[in-house]
């Protein structure tokens, strides 16, 4: 078994030697040469061994560097989700259900970036170049100076990008790429990890922004190893229901801007159109006040968004009542039903409960608890809330109401859309007058008693 070589170095200048001597030949100092202990113990084939690398340059937290420059796409909703625009040398991962509009959105974005002066290359691994050109013709983008290619060989793609040096490269999709040094089929975990690593490393090394399209699983998560989401700078999810024309681009990770920011688009015959006032569109189909209908004033990222919550409570013909939720967390619905029964004495046993967020929205913030409770009680008691009222607030397991963040922004958005009153938890930060009557509640029992006359 081969022995680990013994090395010596000077503690004054760092020069390395194969044997000890009293005087350093590099700096001339005496008695400064010592045996290296190595940076890792064990055989060199299994550990780093005794060989040392280069020392890092350490700095402090003070900096005079300006924020990274951004390129505007001209699509305001996309720029908002990216944090203000496209950052050079950034790696972005976009995921979404099949047919939701990922390729359409990125082709429109590529055309806008190219028209603004960025050299853009669109590489399609799923469609032929003729198919992409047909989509561009349908969207009216044929005049955009976008370079197009259909290729899946990662080596050929990187060679082309090295030679062309574009400002932006779009890869559609990462699951179709294959590296010839990895012995597995395209789309496998090894291939996806290797391809994502090479493309992300290329972006950081050359300053080219790279946008990757990722497939999703049946659960709606981006397929492949989770490490891909850790590699990239930004992860965007393209959400929406097939039956609705609205599409939501949501940032779940962003190193250059706020996470949970959303951009709203509308699918039209000419592609995806921006929705500059999502609240008005989500409430556009809302008619006269009806039992089970409540308007929730929510916050998505930095944007206040109003949407309609619809609930239906009906006697169950089955031995086990159904609980169906669309656009919200089913576990949180079960918690709200349990609090209503345990703290307010309002049972839902033997009743089917259906909850829907209108317009295809998906809500995750806990401030929707009070609006959900109001919709459930309204449907159960067959009592409609006033049409000009918005509701928001978090419910604790004790039945107490906890204040929500950014109350003033929620009220401003509600006032802008013509709402005149709001129901919210007490104890929050004082807010200015927004032309809205604020009715505050301290607990769920008081809310039920005052709004629905029970408790």
Automatic annotation (TrEMBL):
Function: DNA-dependent ATPase involved in processing of recombination intermediates, plays a role in repairing DNA breaks. Stimulates the branch migration of RecA-mediated strand transfer reactions, allowing the 3' invading strand to extend heteroduplex DNA faster. Binds ssDNA in the presence of ADP but not other nucleotides, has ATPase activity that is stimulated by ssDNA and various branched DNA structures, but inhibited by SSB. Does not have RecA's homology-searching function. Plays a role in repairing double-strand DNA breaks, probably involving stabilizing or processing branched DNA or blocked replication forks.
Gene3D superfamilies according to UniProt: 3.30.230.10, P-loop containing nucleotide triphosphate hydrolases
InterPro entries on file: AAA+_ATPase (IPR003593), DNA_repair_RadA (IPR004504), P-loop_NTPase (IPR027417), RecA_ATP-bd (IPR020588), Ribosomal_Su5_D2-typ_SF (IPR020568), Ribsml_uS5_D2-typ_fold_subgr (IPR014721), Rubredoxin_2 (IPR041166)
Segments forming domain RecA family profile: 67-216
Amino-acid positions noted as binding ATP in the UniProt annotation, renumbered to this chain: 96-103
UniProt keyword annotation of Zinc-finger present: yes
Chain span(s) of sequence motif RadA KNRFG motif: 253-257
GO cellular component: cytosol
Region (Lon-protease-like), start-end ranges: 352-455
The protein's name in its UniProt record: DNA repair protein RadA
Domain description: The middle region has homology to RecA with ATPase motifs including the RadA KNRFG motif, while the C-terminus is homologous to Lon protease.
Sorted UniProt keywords: ATP-binding, DNA damage, DNA repair, DNA-binding, Hydrolase, Metal-binding, Nucleotide-binding, Stress response, Zinc, Zinc-finger
One Gene Ontology molecular-function label: damaged DNA binding
Entries under PANTHER family matching the protein: DNA REPAIR PROTEIN RADA, DNA REPAIR PROTEIN RADA-LIKE PROTEIN
Higher taxonomy: Bacteria, Pseudomonadati, Pseudomonadota, Alphaproteobacteria, Rhodobacterales
Signal peptide coordinates: none
Family: Belongs to the RecA family. RadA subfamily.
Annotated SMART domains: AAA (SM00382)
GO biological process per UniProt: recombinational repair
